[in-house]
């Protein structure tokens, strides 16, 4: 019988055929931002080819097992047997939590990727003050009992919170005569007569700013961030954060699957040799192992554009990954938590964050904890900068130090057709990451003919089945 | 006590073009299309079935085409209760590759007891007249891997599909252990409180 049968076994010829094809978009790197863009482009009907030089998903935002971790950062060491099974570990390279009511949650609902993922709330949120770790109060009772501030200060703090809670940009009567688009954050706080320590608490432990730049900026943003914190906290109660089971590396895999389900072609372990440009400097393809796939645009993380000089370094982030056999001391034995060390408490310009996760988040074997200490680098001795935080941990079983350069795009996407995401910043959650994705998405849309533009409306989500 | 509702995650593996999506579609939607296109738009399908006293929801996961260049991530394999290995009886290579698909599954999914994990092998496209892999050869491979159940199927002519999936469900159910029943207290993202209702219950 001469029925045409597709004889497709994965071999060189099929790869050649796929590389021979022409794509609307080639995406380089499977980090969380790039996979989300890949998914959005596939859903918008674009023909997508997605490559990653690594054999695993996630790029800089992957979650690695113990063997991968030692291979990459162990300086030739082998994982010791007492740490347990490699596959029980999912160690995030970028430590972040998700705000329960934040933009990433909206993006997951919007893209209907929630059914690939399961989440748990993070058990607690703590803040370092005068050498001690305090729970960030989440109820009025906790606030009254907290040693963080005196009685009178608590009343002033409460007045501030009530103002923030009631503030609605669209309703002038809630503004109480203040124009938050002009008034600076510092001046708004001054209006409530708050002490410096309370200001730090609001700005860093609630609004989650990682440095003090917000003080001179309009207070509207501060209020928005405080509202996001309390709305997120109200969702599940123990902390404003949620976190995916098996680690953050699940996010890029969910977005990749979304892209694949809509036709995206996936190639891991694919060396990217060269990005090809035409004589006008516009991107026209990507070459890998002697084969060139053609495309109209390229999306990718900065690591793929270093050689072409299309990104610039704006700083460094230091992340110390600790494997421990005990939870972080003075956190009520929380299985998972965050501790914020505001910069002013330790004489820095940037906050230090500590995140702790364990077996209950499916990122470590029973009895082990993954604790990551991170901050923006300020000196030539980044590891030393984190010592105030490391002192709080007790003795870890193993420490890895990861120093990452932070890159931002320095190209003209309208001219070269390259849409480059920024490196992950030191912030403790994904709000800025999703903003980056949305900004790049808008850039892409701005270069398409009007009839092909598709807008994302995170305020009006489609119904979930 | 009412019989407990069970959710089984079943993943289908095998080379591109052996009929994974078609098998899934035939079983769940009773549909078949002769027109081949590399999988696009297939995510997972669910089907409720009754196995003895128990109501079982089978959630059958397609590869979404990510198997073509060995690019299935570990998340795809995670928590699988059963793995269906599919080959095309008319293409020898697809049968020879079963070994590596099985290895890949055991490596990525890491079941506690790999020897006892419930695989099922389907030799698909028996409706075609170009058979190359004999029943004997397939059976002997299955026997060498701890007696994996083997079915010869045709998604096109609806041969053996129901029977195969019933065995898939039964064997997966028989594997249920205490640790599988433990469900962490996960949260439901689609049930978001808005600002108003959050304010009413906010503490301060």
Task: Please provide a written account of the structure.
The complex is a heterodimer of chains A (465) and B (204). In chain A, strands 1, 2, 10, 11, 12, 13 and 19 form a 7-stranded mixed sheet that branches. Chain A has a 7-stranded mixed sheet with strand order 8-7-15-16-17-14-18. With 465 residues, chain A is α/β, with parallel strands linked by helices. Chain A folds into 3 domains: 14-59 and 249-311 and 408-452, FAD/NAD(P)-binding domain (3-Layer(bba) Sandwich), CATH 3.50.50.60; 65-123 and 313-406, Guanine Nucleotide Dissociation Inhibitor, domain 2; 139-236, Guanine Nucleotide Dissociation Inhibitor, domain 1 (Orthogonal Bundle). Helices cover 29% and strands 23% of the residues of chain A. By secondary structure, chain B is α/β, with parallel strands linked by helices. Chain B has a single domain, classed as Rossmann fold (3-Layer(aba) Sandwich). In chain B, 32% of the residues lie in helices and 20% in strands. Chain B has 8 helices and 6 strands. In chain B, strands 2-3-1-4-5-6 form a 6-stranded mixed sheet, sandwiched between helices. In chain B, strand 2 (44-51) and strand 3 (54-61) form a beta hairpin. The N and C termini of chain B lie far apart (43 Å). The model of chain B has no long low-confidence stretch (mean pLDDT 88). The interface between A and B is large, with 63 and 48 residues. Chain B: Pfam families: Ras. Chain B: Keywords: GTP-binding, Lipoprotein, Nucleotide-binding, Prenylation. Chain B: Belongs to the small GTPase superfamily. Rab family.
């Amino acid at each position: 019988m001469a029925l045409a049968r597709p004889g497709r076994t994965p071999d060189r010829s099929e790869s050649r055929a796929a590389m021979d094809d022409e794509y609307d978009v080639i995406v380089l790197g499977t980090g969380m931002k790039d996979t989300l863009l890949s998914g959005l482009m596939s859903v918008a009907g674009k023909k997508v080819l997605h490559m990653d030089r690594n054999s695993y998903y996630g790029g800089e935002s992957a979650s690695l097992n113990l063997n991968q971790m030692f291979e990459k950062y162990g300086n030739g060491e082998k994982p010791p047997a007492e740490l347990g099974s490699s596959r029980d570990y999912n160690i995030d390279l970028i430590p972040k939590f998700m705000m329960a009511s934040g933009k990433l949650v909206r993006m997951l609902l919007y893209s209907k990727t929630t059914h690939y993922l399961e989440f748990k709330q993070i058990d607690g949120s703590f803040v370092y003050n005068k050498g001690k770790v305090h729970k960030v109060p989440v109820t009025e009772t906790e606030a009254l009992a907290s040693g963080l501030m005196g009685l009178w200060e608590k009343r002033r703090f409460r007045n501030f919170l009530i103002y923030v809670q009631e503030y609605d940009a669209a309703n002038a009567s809630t503004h109480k005569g203040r124009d938050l688009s002009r008034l600076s954050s510092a001046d708004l706080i001054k209006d409530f007569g708050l002490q410096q320590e309370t200001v730090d608490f609001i700005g860093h432990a609630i609004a989650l700013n990682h440095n003090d730049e917000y003080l001179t900026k309009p207070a509207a943003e501060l209020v928005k961030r405080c509202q996001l914190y309390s709305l997120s906290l109200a969702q599940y109660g123990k902390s404003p954060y949620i976190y995916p089971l098996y680690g953050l590396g699940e996010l890029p895999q969910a977005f990749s699957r979304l892209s694949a389900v809509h036709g995206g072609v996936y190639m891991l372990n694919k060396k990217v040799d060269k990005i090809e440009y035409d004589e006008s400097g516009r991107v026209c393809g990507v070459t890998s192992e002697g084969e060139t796939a053609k495309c109209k645009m390229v999306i990718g993380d900065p690591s793929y554009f270093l050689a072409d000089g299309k990104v610039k370094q704006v700083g460094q982030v230091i992340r110390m990954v600790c494997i421990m056999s005990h939870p972080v001391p003075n956190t009520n034995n929380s299985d998972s938590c965050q501790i914020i060390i505001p910069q002013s408490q330790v004489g820095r310009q940037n906050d230090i964050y500590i995140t702790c996760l364990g077996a209950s988040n499916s990122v470590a074997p029973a009895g082990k904890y993954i604790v990551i200490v991170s901050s923006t680098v300020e000196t030539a001795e980044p590891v030393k900068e984190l010592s105030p935080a490391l002192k709080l941990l007790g003795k870890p079983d193993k420490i890895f130090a990861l120093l990452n350069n932070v890159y931002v795009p320095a190209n003209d996407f309208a001219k070269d057709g390259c849409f480059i995401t920024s490196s992950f910043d030191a912030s403790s959650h994904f709000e800025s990451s999703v903003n980056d994705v949305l900004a790049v998405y808008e850039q892409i849309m701005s270069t398409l003919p009007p009839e092909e533009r598709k807008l994302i409306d995170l305020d009006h989500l489609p119904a979930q089945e | 006590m009412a019989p407990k509702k069970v959710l089984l995650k079943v993943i289908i593996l095998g080379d591109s073009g052996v009929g994974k999506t078609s098998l899934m579609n035939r079983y769940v939607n009773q549909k078949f299309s002769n027109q081949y296109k590399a999988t696009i738009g297939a995510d997972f399908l669910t089907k409720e079935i009754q196995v003895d006293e128990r109501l079982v929801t089978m959630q059958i996961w397609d590869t979404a085409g990510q198997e073509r260049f060995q690019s299935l991530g570990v998340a795809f394999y995670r928590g699988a209760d059963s793995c269906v290995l599919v080959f095309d009886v008319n293409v020898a290579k697809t049968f020879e590759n079963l070994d590596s698909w099985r290895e890949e599954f055991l490596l990525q999914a890491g079941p506690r007891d790999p020897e006892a994990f419930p695989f099922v092998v389907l030799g698909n496209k028996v409706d075609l007249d170009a058979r190359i892999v004999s029943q004997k050869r397939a059976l002997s491979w299955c026997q060498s891997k701890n007696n994996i159940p083997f079915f010869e199927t045709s998604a096109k002519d609806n041969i053996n599909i129901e029977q195969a999936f019933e065995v898939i469900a039964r064997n997966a159910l028989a594997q249920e252990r205490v640790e599988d029943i433990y469900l962490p207290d996960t949260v439901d993202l689609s049930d978001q409180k808005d600002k108003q209702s959050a304010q009413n219950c906010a503490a301060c």
